[in-house]
What we know:
The structure is a single chain. The protein is mainly α. 0% of the residues are buried. The mean pLDDT is 91. It is 70% helix and 0% strand. The chain has helices at residues 13-25, 30-49, 53-65.
Amino acid sequence: MDPNRWKSVAVRVADYNLLKGLGKLKHRAPASQIAKLVDDYIKYLAKKEGLKVEDLKKKLMATQNG
């Protein structure tokens, strides 16, 4: 597995079970469900802050890398 493309995260078992349940509702794997949750939350924050989604993503990535 390419460590520049994939990262592991630890979640509580209860949260993992909920994540699996949410994924089953829409036939998504845990990774896809996490990606959707992140994407939906970024859209929510961008709207709340009056920013374009891409601008918020750039801002968030800059804080991660800097």
